[in-house]
Design goal:
Elements lengths: L2 H21 L4 H20 L2 H5 L1 H14 L6 H6 L5 H31 L8 H22 L12 H18 L2 H30 L6 H22 L12 H24 L1 H8 L5 H29 L6 H22 L9 H17 L16 H24 L14
Helix pairs in contact: 1-2, 1-10, 1-14, 1-15, 2-4, 2-11, 2-14, 4-6, 4-11, 6-8, 6-9, 6-10, 6-16, 7-8, 9-10, 9-16, 11-13, 12-13, 13-14, 14-15
Length: 424
């Protein structure tokens, strides 16, 4: 890969990393979905493929669903396992974070790849796929959790088992129907996001030990998105993709756009930015009720302006794949998400946090880098699936995680927030 292509990979990594860090202010499926949509928009922008520009909205929507559905997984206690001071618990914690992050990337990268690979000659049967994913999830949860009692995060939710079954069903659909490029993207993105979660937890521990005055939890979240995004972008660049001649139907574009710019943000508003949520979140700030009410109205105004702007620029003036308008959507979608993170952390009360300012720095750097991207995805093609390399990569990551666990227990004693999965 040349310099321009590596810049493209970096753009996607920084975009998804920033968005996933912002997601830390909101959590859950809706926060992850917004971040996943941002990652897909960055991926399409850096590709410079006009056929992908034309189906920008469906690609971003499918990516949002893939990354978003895994937002149901509970991992707070697992992070605590990684902060223990004995090898069995730390290794278990880091390994399970690798699994959880892997599920983020598996479904997020896999569904994104399927949307890219679906064409007139070989279409993805989305209804059939979704039925298989749901069935696989229910079977996996019922068997692993309810039948044989495999518990990763007791007493928290074991929703990871549902996502695991859904992800395996998706892989089986890909293999059965010959979607090899999508299969490759799913596996590599799973490795990337999984590694990012485990490594991010290690960085969080190191930051705590060194008493770095920064939101180290947010560093961990950025690590998930950055490594997951770079893995997804690299695999997309090094895979073969069909050219899509027929653009999406008008209703498909409009439905996908509505899902991205209205449905997801409004759910985020309902769950995190309503007056009652902000009163509880702001805590002991002076004039908390007034500031919470003001912040909620400001957020609502920005979201409404964003929705009407999207309607005006992409529906009233029908979108047909123009790169500049795609860039405007990406900029607006990421900027509004960053702005919402300021709102929910008390900007109206004069509260500012360094990690939020770094979101803005990332935003600026991303757009500076976008001006340097000049490439085509079709220039690089990898036709074969070399499963031996995947096994080697998996074993290498396991060994690295074991090394991280050894280093982690050697640099600290008991830490706040540490959890014990096994009595040692």
């Amino acid at each position: 890969m040349n310099r321009s292509q590596w810049i493209g990979v970096l753009i996607v990594g920084m975009s998804l990393g920033t968005a996933w860090a912002v997601r830390g202010q909101f959590g859950h499926e809706q926060g992850a979905a917004w971040a996943g949509g941002i990652g897909a928009l960055a991926l399409v922008l850096m590709s410079q493929r006009t056929d992908w520009y034309r189906k920008l909205f469906p690609i971003a929507m499918v990516s949002a669903i893939g990354w978003g559905v895994t937002g149901m997984i509970s991992y707070g206690r697992v992070v605590g396992f990684g902060r223990s001071n004995d090898f069995p618990n730390v290794f278990y914690g880091l390994l399970m974070l690798f699994v959880i992050g892997g599920l983020f990337g598996l479904l997020g990268g896999g569904l994104t790849g399927l949307c890219l690979e679906s064409s007139e000659k070989k279409k993805v049967k989305w209804a059939s796929l979704m039925a298989e994913v749901v069935a696989g999830g229910l079977i996996s949860y019922g068997f692993l959790v309810q039948q044989i009692g495999v518990l990763m995060t007791p007493p928290r939710s074991e929703a990871w088992a549902f996502c695991l079954g859904g992800g395996l069903a998706m892989l089986w659909y890909m293999a059965r129907n010959g979607f090899n490029s999508s299969l490759r993207v799913a596996l590599f993105t799973a490795f990337g996001a999984g590694f990012g979660f485990a490594f991010g937890n290690f960085l969080q521990t190191v930051g705590t030990v060194l008493q770095i005055q920064f939101n180290m939890w947010n560093v961990m979240e950025y690590s998930i998105g950055f490594f997951g995004g770079t893995a997804m972008a690299y695999t997309v660049l090094t895979s073969e993709w069909p050219k899509t001649e027929q653009p999406p139907k008008r209703w498909e574009n409009q439905s996908a756009l509505f899902f991205l710019v209205a449905f997801i943000p409004l759910i985020v508003f309902r769950e995190s930015i309503q007056y009652s949520h902000l009163v509880n979140r702001f805590g002991d700030i002076q004039n908390v009720e007034h500031l919470a009410n003001l912040s909620s109205w400001i957020a609502a105004f920005v979201l409404v302006v964003g929705i009407f702007s999207a309607w005006f620029f992409f529906v009233r003036k029908a979108y047909s794949g123009e790169k500049n308008r795609a860039k405007y959507l990406f900029a607006g979608y990421l900027a509004v998400y960053i702005f919402m993170s300021y709102v929910v952390t008390g900007v109206s009360a004069g509260q500012f946090h360094l990690n939020h300012h770094l979101y803005v720095v990332n935003f600026i750097v991303i757009f500076l880098l976008l001006s340097k991207v000049d490439m085509s995805v079709a220039e690089i093609k990898v036709h074969a699936m070399h499963y031996g390399k995947y096994r080697l990569l998996f074993l290498s990551i396991l060994l690295f995680i074991a090394l991280l666990a050894l280093v982690s227990i050697s640099i600290h004693d008991e830490l706040a927030g540490a959890q014990q999965r096994f009595p040692v």
